[in-house]
């Protein structure tokens, strides 16, 4: 990830060093939380807990929990309330990757340089590890609602946002479209429809859930909803740009670069990230981290 | 299902006719509810909603939602509060069957005389239909908590019971043990451990969730928890008795009949159902339906 962009003036460099430090601080809290809320590997049946932990600890950028936490911190500083929700979101993201990688889906042997769950534990345990992570995510959110009952309604509202985002019209729906995508996706509108479901919904829900648990008002949530929407899509277009291989005429799947061309895709990601950042204007300095995070995601090289 | 048992005296017959009628009435409300809370088949992406509805409408005894509703009605008569939760539980049960039937698991081509989900829709959509039903179940519970916010805490408590029952130490854990069961299960204790997870947890949670949403007190919930535990196990032992084939020396998987013998299994199911019914004593006539349901489940022929 690149934290210093456009200008090398002292001010920008300092601000970005602050961002980098803050990012690492949040990341470290999240990595600890991800371990805390999962059953131990020696709890029975051991193999399922090993499989759950294997995939959760397989790295990844942790964009979704960081977004949830960063948005939350615009309204409240006590991270104990948001941490379980942020981790639940990452468990859901991990379940979706385990199932996406299965032989019946994308049939991927490696993810982030490590063998995929079904390559290590077999297909049956991989399916069940995904099922367990999805269930556990909601278990953790219910638990938080009972532990911090003074914010119970906020957990229910956030839980609803997350469940909706992952349901048959959201995350699962996006994957349904994806497995048939080569034949049916031929316009950027259809590609956008798939990506909004598959990637956008959960990124948007991460931002909104953070705001809800932090006690944000409804107009603030509306702005942040737009921010999450634009960011989610920008993130996906940027992914396609990073995957772009020059002179490749027939990619395996439709992408923004295959439909809009590489320059078209670059223009589009610029517009989306500008829109995302513009929707943070009303928050002023409070949104500095989210602004920097958006820029770092767009400028990322992997 | 056999509703008239042991005696043919007029009183018992009449009581059981009442039971049969009440059972059908509850069943009909549940069947309607199961359709109501699912997205329509023509909502996009259509194929996932077709697959979800295909499996949910593939029959089944609806034991779990009926248990939830019957237990609820001991405390409150307005079924609108329990119906979404009862249906959510049946969605979860359906997801677990779709995933259990997959080629990587039990590899079953038929269930209840109909082709299994992956035989109709392919493996990828079957996995996703299971994922979507599980997610949708929690979505429906959150929605109820927001719609009937005066009972929000009860929905959160019931949701927690259900999520816990389906997590890696419950339903999913039972399936993990099951797929390795031939080699590792050789005592009735180990078999019981698997069945309590795989079948018992969700049956128990159905009973407890019904009581919670109905506003039962904690000592009532404790008795009903015991009832649900005993009933769940009795149900599974009875399943093994019904599957028992005389002279079969090596069944595919360990069962209560292979471990305890057919007579031993029959004794065990009698003891469990007596314990289940005994734990209803403090509820007197209010528990008549649950008592009859228990007897009908134990006397069932399929």
Question: How does this structure look, described?
Answer:
With 302 residues, chain A is an all-alpha fold. Chain A has a single domain, classed as Farnesyl Diphosphate Synthase, CATH 1.10.600.10. Chain A is built from 13 helices and two strands. Chain A has helices spanning 10-36, 46-56, 63-73, 83-101, 117-121, 123-147, 152-166, 171-179, 181-184, 188-213, 218-243, 256-278, 288-299, and strands at residues 110-111, 114-115. In chain A, helix 4 packs antiparallel against helix 6 (123-147), helix 4 runs antiparallel to helix 10 (188-213) and helix 8 runs antiparallel to helix 10 (188-213). Chain A is globular. At the A-B interface, helix 2, helix 6, helix 7 and helix 8 of A face helix 2, helix 6, helix 7 and helix 8 of B.
Q: What structural keywords apply?
A:
two-stranded antiparallel sheet, homodimer, disordered N terminus, Farnesyl Diphosphate Synthase, 302 residues, mainly alpha
Strand content of chain A: under 5%
- Class by SSE composition of chain A: mainly alpha
**Model regions low in confidence, pLDDT < 50 over at least 5 residues of chain A:** 1-10
What is the assembly state of the chains in this entry? homodimer
Number of helices of chain A: 13
Quick one: CATH class of chain A? Mainly Alpha
């Amino acid at each position: 990830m690149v934290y210093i962009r456009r200008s090398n003036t002292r001010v920008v460099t300092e601000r970005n060093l602050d961002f980098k430090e803050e990012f690492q601080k949040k990341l470290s809290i999240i990595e600890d939380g991800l371990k805390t809320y999962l059953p131990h590997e020696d709890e029975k049946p051991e193999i399922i807990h090993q499989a759950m932990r294997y995939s959760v600890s397989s790295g990844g950028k942790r964009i979704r929990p960081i977004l949830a936490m960063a948005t939350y911190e615009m309204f409240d500083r006590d991270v104990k309330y948001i941490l379980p929700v942020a981790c639940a979101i990452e468990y859901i993201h991990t379940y979706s990757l385990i199932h996406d990688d299965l032989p019946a889906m994308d049939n991927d042997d490696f993810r982030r340089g490590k063998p995929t769950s079904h390559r290590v534990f077999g297909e049956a345990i991989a399916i069940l590890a995904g099922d367990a992570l999805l269930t556990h995510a909601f278990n953790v959110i219910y638990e938080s609602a009972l532990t911090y009952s003074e914010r119970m309604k906020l957990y229910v509202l956030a839980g609803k946002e997350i469940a909706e985002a992952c349901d048959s019209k959201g995350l699962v729906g996006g994957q349904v479209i994806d497995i048939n995508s080569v034949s049916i996706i031929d316009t950027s509108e259809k590609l956008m429809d798939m990506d909004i479901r598959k990637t956008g919904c959960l990124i948007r829900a991460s931002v909104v859930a953070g705001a809800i648990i932090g006690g944000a008002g409804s107009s603030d949530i509306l702005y942040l909803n737009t921010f999450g929407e634009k960011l989610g899509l920008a993130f996906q277009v940027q992914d396609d740009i990073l995957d772009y291989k020059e002179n490749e005429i027939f990619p395996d799947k439709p992408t923004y670069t295959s439909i809009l061309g590489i320059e078209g895709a670059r223009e589009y990601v610029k517009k989306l990230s500008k829109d995302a950042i513009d929707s943070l204007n009303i928050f002023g300095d409070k949104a500095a981290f989210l602004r920097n995070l958006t820029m770092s995601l767009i400028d990322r090289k992997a």
